Structures are given as structure tokens and as C-alpha cells.
Amino acid sequence: MARVILHIDMNAFFASVEQVSDPRLKGRPIAVIGSDHRTVITTASYEARAFGVKTGMTVPEARKLCPRLIFVVGDNRKYTSACARIMEVFSRYTPLVEVFSIDEAFLDVTGSTLLFGGGADIGRRIKADIRREIGLTCSVGVAPNKLLAKLASDMQKPDGLTVIEPGRVAEVMEALPASDLCGIGPGLTLALSGMGIKTCGQLGRASASGLRSRFGIIGERLKLMGMGADDSPVVPQEEEGQARSVGHSTTLSRDTGDKDDLSVFLLQLSEMVGRRMRRNHYLGDTVTLTVRYSDFRTFSQSMRFRKPVNDGLDIYLLAKRLMDPIRLSMKVRLIGVSVSGLVSDPMQVSLFEDERKRASVTAAMDAINDRFGEFTVTWGSLLLRQRRKGVIAPAWRPEGSRRIEY
Amino acid sequence: MVLELNENITVGAVFSHGEVRPAWFLWRGRKYAVGEVTYTWESREGEARLRHFSVSSGANIYTLTYNGLACSWDMKGVEQDWRG
After folding, report:
1. Over the stretch A179-201, which tens digit does the pLDDT of each residue have?
2. A169-226 maps to which CATH number?
3. What chain A residue is nearest to B52 in terms of C-alpha separation?
4. Which CATH superfamily is domain A1-164 in?
5. Every domain range in chain A assigned CATH 3.30.1490.100
6. Which residues in chain B touch residue A131, judged by CB atoms under 8 angstroms apart?
7. DSSP string spanning A260-327?
8. Contact: B46, A371; criterion CB under 8 Å
9. CATH architecture for segment(s) A242-382
């Protein structure tokens, strides 16, 4: 029996939420930006896209293309709340929901068709529920696998519903540019073009050995993609494997080469990482410091602990040991801290009194911050740090270790 | 233009069937009638569940936040009419 997979893509998600929130913005070209003066556009409404405004553009670039563009400072709490409500709608139709990003999800509704009708019917019901309850539109792709469902949802935007029937796959793929497939980026497109492959039809007919010798292990996968084949399952969040790392980074409000300034950011980021690890019962043994210079050159350095930790101070001290010997060649734009080598925290009580005392202090701080909000109790050196509205991480999930409260 | 605020205010609201809907609010010595609740969203601050409301009153959009734990309302921001 063919699977029935839906891919649901919220249309210009952040901008649409803002247009619902402030109806005066409906039908207007708007761009959602961060609160920082160095921000870039995170989402543009379809009205703004018509002028060529795109994600990643700076404010002056966008204003040049569309002088009447309205800039709205985004609020991640609005978007994460909307995402959680949308996920609740999905869960009415199937438990098999894979959150692909904050505005995209795959649903396996194969087992739900007797209850709710075929894939297209379920897609229409979900669209109606989201529009009625949250006021947003989405594009739905219905197909026998994830690759084709994503392709289908891209075919009609905004507010579309496209079905690729199992019997029509070869016909749909024949003239479709290979670059339309999720996972085939500009580099791969160029390389395929060099082999005379421009369409999915050509890719599907290409020799597997030729693709393998050119692209290695992914060669055969490319051929299958060209044929519209994909057997990857929809993986609900609770079945996702353990996180590999926990990290936070921040773009500084102004570039700086002052290591004292950078140390304060390191402490804040380390505390955030430690807190998230403790909440999800992880310990980690490797700290990685990431530094991006003002010219966007980026490098990372890592160091291992003798034993795994999840205390923000331990993470900070190691991150600082990594930073101290670095001779900064120019001012820093972004700094990040992550911890990898994660294992489950066995919650073992230490034999040593000073470690037990520190663990007690950390537990007390966690309890207070759980009750009254993040950074209610923190290091004195962080009190002068102003909290800013950041840009949401693509890895955000409604639940679990990737959920970050703002 | 958005004016970010954090002022404790008095709100008249209707609680019904598990839902809450602000009807009017007193802010800076004036009473404002809520025209439309244009959007709602939730967040947490520690144990407190915060429910945020974008509401229209006159030409402006106001953000009101209800803290269920503290039983209090805050005015979080005003988006003044950007056409003005």
C-alpha cells in the first residue's frame, strides 16, 4: 500500500503572523527583522517579495528595492506559540508528525485515511483548521513520500494544495529541473549540469555507477531522487535520537575585540547551554568555542573535560581557556559556545563535599529560575547585560531539548 | 512605530468557557474600549503562563499580557498607526 505523506509549509510564516496580529499590515509589503540595528530580514511578506525583497537582505538593501516597505521587529514568542498551536492541529489527524523547521512539517497520514478521507481531504481539513483557528495560510503537498510531498507543496504558493498521485510520479519528474529537489543545491546542480543532467528525468535515467564515481556514496541516492523515490520515514520528535550537541551563539550588537566584553557573552552563553543540558538531563565532555570575525571568517576550537559536565561555570571556564590564547586578528561579530559528547546524566551524587555544595547551589538556582524565569538569579557580571530579542534558531522544536524559551 | 512598555494596568475582561477576552483597559488615566482581539499567543516566565493579546482600540494596536499566576495585567506595547 502506498504511503500518504503531507508536507505542510506555512506561507511567509513570521510575516503572516505579524499581519494577523496587526490587521493594518494585511496586503502591505512588510519585512520581519530583529531588534538589533545590524539585523537582516528574517521573513518578507508576499507583497514585499513581489518587489524582490528576500530573507537575509539588510534593511537598506530591502528599502532600496521597496521604499514603502514596513519593518516589523519580530517576536519569537508569537511564532513559537503559533507553531505549537499548528502542531496541535496536526496531531488531530496523525501522531506521525515530523517538525522539519519552525514553519514546515511532514505528516504520515497513511493510517488516518479511513477516519478522515484521502490525503487531499486531510490537507484541506488542516488548511481550514489553521485558517479558522490561527488565521494563517499554508501550502500543502500530498504524495507517496517526503521528497515528493515537499516538492508538491512548493508548486503552489501561497495557500496551495498539490497532489502528486503515485501513478503520475514519472510524468511529474520528467521535465522538472533537478535543482527543484530538496537537497540539490547550487553546487550539486552545477556538477550535474557538467554531466549533461538538468532535469529529474535525466537524473533518474543516469547510470548509477557514473553518479557514484562522480559523487561517491550519494550517487545512488541522487538517481533515486531523480526517479522520485524516497523511503525515509516520517520521524516524530519523540523517536528522534539523542541530541549530539547543545549550543548557543549570539551576534554582538557591535563588533568588539575586547576580551573582557567577550568573556561576559561567553559566561551568558555557557549558562544558557548548561541550563538547557540540565533541563534535558545531559552531561557533555567537549566544549567548542566558535568565533566569527567582522569579515565573516569563522573558526572553532574544542577542548575536552576529564569528565562530563553540565554546569555553566565549568563550561565557561573551559570556553575561556579556549579563548584566552587566541590573538584576535580583527573585531568579533559573533561568538558561540556548544557542548558535545553528550551522555545521559545518571544524577549521581558526588563523593566530594565541595562538588556536592556546588551542585546544591546550581540546583537552587535552577529551582528559582524555573519558578520565576530565566536569569532571575545569575552571576553579577551578567546583570548589566541587556536581554535582546534574538532570531529564532532553525532547530527550534515545540518540545524537547531543542525548545528554547525566549 | 512600536512603543515598548512594561506597565501594570487595570483590565476589564470576560472569562468564559476557559477563555479570557479583554474588553477594556485603563492606561495613563484613560479608559480604552477593546475593538478587536486580533491575535493571541502564549509564553512562559518561570512557572507563570503568560497570555498575550494584540488588541485594537481606535487606530492603535496594543499588546496586553495576562499573568495567570499573579492575576495581573501588563501593557507591553503600543503599535501606533504607522500611516500617521
Report:
1. 999 888 888 999 999 999 999 99
2. 1.10.150.20
3. A78
4. Reverse transcriptase/Diguanylate cyclase domain (3.30.70.270)
5. 242-382
6. none
7. HHHHHHHHHHHHHHHHHHHHTTEEEEEEEEEEEETTS-EEEEEEEEEEEE--HHHHHHHHHHHHTT--
8. yes
9. 2-Layer Sandwich (3.30)
CATH 3.30.70.270 boundaries in chain A: 1-164
Mean pLDDT of A290-311: 89
**A224-228 average pLDDT score:** 94
* ipTM (interface predicted TM): 0.77
> Which of A16, A24, A130, A366 is most worth mutating to test chain B (most B CB atoms within 10 A of its CB)?
A24
- In sequence order, what are the beta bridge partners of B49? B44
Q: For chain B, where are the E strands, in sequence order?
A: 2-16, 19-27, 30-33, 36-45, 48-57, 60-67, 72-79
A–B interface: beta-carbon pairs under 8 A:
51
DSSP summary character for residue A258: -
**Which residue from B38, B46, B47 is facing A20, i.e. has the nearest CB?**
B38
Nearest by CB: A370 against B38, B47, B83: B47
pLDDT in tens, A98-131: 999 889 999 999 999 999 999 999 999 999 999 9
Which residues of A participate in catalysis according to the annotation? 104
